[in-house]
Amino acid sequence: MPQSAAHVRPLRRGDLSRLAELRLWYLAETARLEPRLKLVPDARERLAAAVTSWWGEEGRITLVAEDPLGMVPAGEALPIVGYITGRVSVWPPVWKAQRVGEVVEAFVAGDRRDRGLGRTLLAHLVDALVARDIDVLRAKAPIKNDGSVGLLAASGFEPLFRQLERPGATR
Amino acid sequence: MDAIPIRTARRGDVPSLLLLWSAMLDENARFDPRLAPHPDARESAAGSFAQRVDDSAEVVLVAEDGRVPIGFAAGKVTAGNGFQVPDKLGQITDCYVIPARRRRGAGRRLASRLVDLLVGKGAESIRLQVVAKNPAAEAFWASLGYAPLEVIFERALPKPAAPAAPSPPNAPPNAPPA
Fold this sequence. Notes:
By secondary structure, chain A is an alpha+beta fold.
């Protein structure tokens, strides 16, 4: 995979509307791959509010990738084509690892894939989480999202749990 | 063979629940050493089990054999994430039967009763996690209609590099330690 020349930077307040749009694409793609994770009817409105809450949320790290192919007038920001978000969570003393760096969600727009953007975003987030004195890294991916599963596996993540589901009403 | 009775857990079951829960943790750690219990796990769980048994939002069940608890299951109903279905999610947080009392239907009965109660509390779907390196557990749940939805990955952190020890005199480069 070619190394991405993308510029990865922390989220800015002015990115929030674009971030909400990308996050909607992410969830819509997830629903297409896995119908059990389909969106609720008013997901778009809820997403805008939720993404706004990420801004300034203590412990959350959100990074965005600017378009490596973008062309804009001098002085204007490059368009954002991907994001990744994570946080540090402190678990109760069940397992030895308590300070967990969680990779919560990552997405790169479909027409900007296969350029190493996802890998670059993940590497930057991992570095930022490791700097926060964590014991271990964890990440979750829909089992039918081959891209996310493959990226995590190629980045040294190994399966720990498998989440299973069954409908409750059709027993 | 008589069916193993299943009942709701009571305060007096907490010591037995702790033993069963500890055995479950130890078994999981044998499948995957990354799940080694925290030294304070049991002490921490003692308080939380007492609360969980009293909490009407939680369901804690016990399977008995001759009035001796031989397994337990627990779960609760939580709100969905607000963007995806379901709106109300039933989560099975624990389900364990001691090895010597398996293959008599206790796990199946615990799971079935727990799901009934979670659905009764409004759960639209039921989720649980199995240790990825325990295929028998996944096969058990698959036989009850559960299918994989997500994978939770873990990555260890690189250990800080130890300072290089000086080579003994006359040792060739990269010689194994004596």
